[in-house]
User: Which sequence fits this backbone?
């Protein structure tokens, strides 16, 4: 069953603008991870944020986590054409039966040059 | 070059045939995972393995078999392929299960006719 749900499903912006994607989930988590997937390729890990953390940065990426609202956001600043990809959030459910991440359906981001 | 490799990259098979998808990692990661990616469903966990000779079911294990006789290999077998198993299959590995980033291969696109 789907744990995380990304919003919006698709986003198109101009190069140089900031892109924000949101993720909502349903159950308590240990951590939340964001991944990027370029067309025809595997997923690439971006950031892992633990349940006791509120914000993490990595280069042009900023991730926030609000466990009270069961939501996370991924901000990409100063977007580039190379950022065009699908972005997925994935959760590690607290007390989850299967020891695997549960992925959302993704946000497809298009950066217009 | 260290990494995680999947083979074949593309496979077409007929309904009822047995097919094996290969996955090999060079990091000696303890954990390995198999996911399938379908439009409208995102990524769903099929099987995972915490160590050699230890495997467990994920969300959608029916019709699949895995083995892990060596740490570096985690083959996925479709015993009798069905059209519903047409999908893109991703193998991943990690150091500490879902408490650490997953490293994905580039996938196998399987078509069952």
Assistant:
């Amino acid at each position: 069953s789907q744990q995380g749900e990304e919003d919006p499903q698709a986003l198109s912006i101009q190069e140089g603008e900031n892109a924000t994607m949101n993720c909502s989930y349903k159950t308590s988590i240990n951590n939340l991870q964001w991944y990027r997937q370029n067309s025809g390729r595997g997923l690439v890990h971006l950031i892992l944020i633990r349940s006791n953390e509120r914000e993490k940065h990595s280069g042009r990426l900023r991730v926030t986590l609000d466990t009270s609202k069961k939501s996370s956001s991924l901000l990409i600043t100063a977007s580039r054409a190379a950022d065009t990809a699908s972005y997925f959030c994935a959760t590690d459910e607290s007390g989850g039966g299967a020891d695997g991440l549960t992925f959302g359906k993704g946000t497809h981001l298009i950066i217009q040059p | 070059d260290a990494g995680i490799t999947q083979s074949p990259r593309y496979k077409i098979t007929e309904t009822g045939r047995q097919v094996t998808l290969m996955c090999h990692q060079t990091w000696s990661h303890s954990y390995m995972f198999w996911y399938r990616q379908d439009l409208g469903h995102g990524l769903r966990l099929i099987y995972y393995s915490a160590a050699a000779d230890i495997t467990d079911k994920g969300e959608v294990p029916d019709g699949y078999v895995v083995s892990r006789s060596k740490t570096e290999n985690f083959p996925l077998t479709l015993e009798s392929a069905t059209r519903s198993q047409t999908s893109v299959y991703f193998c991943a590995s990690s150091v500490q299960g879902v408490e650490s980033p997953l490293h994905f291969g580039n996938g196998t696109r399987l078509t069952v006719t």
The radius of gyration of chain B is 13 Å.
